[in-house]
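#struct-help
A.M.: can someone run this one for me? Single chain, 375 residues.
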Amino acid sequence: MTEQREQKSENNTARLFAEYARTRDPKLREQLIVQHLGLVSALARRFGADGRELDDLIQVGAIGLIQAIDRFDPSRGVAFRSYAVPTILGEMRRYFRDKASTIRLPRHLRELLTQANAASARLTQKLERPPSLDELAQAMSVPPEDLAVAEESAQAPVSLDQELPASEEEASLADYFGAEDAEMARLKYVNASHCSPVLYGPNKLQCLDAEGQFIGMFEDPEGRPWHFDGAVMPAYENLAEIPPVEDPRTRKMVSGERRIVYVPGTRRAQSAVIAMTDRAGERIEMSLDPLLCFQMKGIGYTHPDWGHGRWKGELAIGGESWKTSDIDPLAFENLHIQQVMRARMGSEEGIGVMEQFCIGPHAPSGFTDLIDGAK
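D.P.: on it. Structure tokens below:
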């Protein structure tokens, strides 16, 4: 039924455009404008605008829509939306460039953007879709880097005093910037690698200390390890000291074990003890205590709408906020987390990161189902 309605709507739109192209009837023009205002609103929200700025953006986008309706030739067989989107976006970008920006762009950038808008409209009609950055740059015979710089320069600056609409309390963007942490002065740089995704009872740990400890442990449902990586690596005073290849002072570990206490009703570590043994049989042990929990869906991992690899269209922009106390810790999208940890090893103390993505049964942890919490 949905497909039939969409097909009927498309046929009606095509009929209106054909009739408008023939008669130039103002009433048909008005009907087509009203019918496509939702497209203008959706494109305006891509820029993250809100309030008065969003209203202004919709108004200038409507100008682009009217221009697209007047110029559209239905006999070419191109979908109207594919033709209209670049024109509408061009008007919106021009609004930011000429009206909203507090910084006047250099003339060569303004001219490049004007050429890009015109070329984008032509390519969209030819390809029946918006062109990629590389396609647009090739058509204009300019380096993609120059085009990217021009498009980024046209974006409107955001004030740190701007109120956040999704915030329940009156808060500005500046309120979410953290203060300098004196504890961070204790950190040194560690040349550490990253572990690959896992399925069962995984616990990944990166600790920054007087030396850098790195461990990746992956176990099956019975607690038997099927992959292990561990090393004690030299720390560096600054990034320039990190060698381009593995430092020969790196101390490789051959086995590891862990004891994790979980927050009841979750699969999030409340505390942990990590131990590793090197080739000479020497054993080191670290205790970990959480300082901060970060939900990995905030950067795309397991997010139901903005997960990695999901195509959302050109220039797609979105955002959301939530209170960690309100989310379901056992929902699949919330299982993947990283926790900043206070790490202690004998008399040494440092800051580390423990990454967890626990799915399925895991006998040592007491998990018996696909996603069940600790007792």
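A.M.: thanks! Residues 96 and 333 are 36 Å apart (CA to CA).
D.P.: also worth noting: The chain has two domains: 36-153, 182-365.
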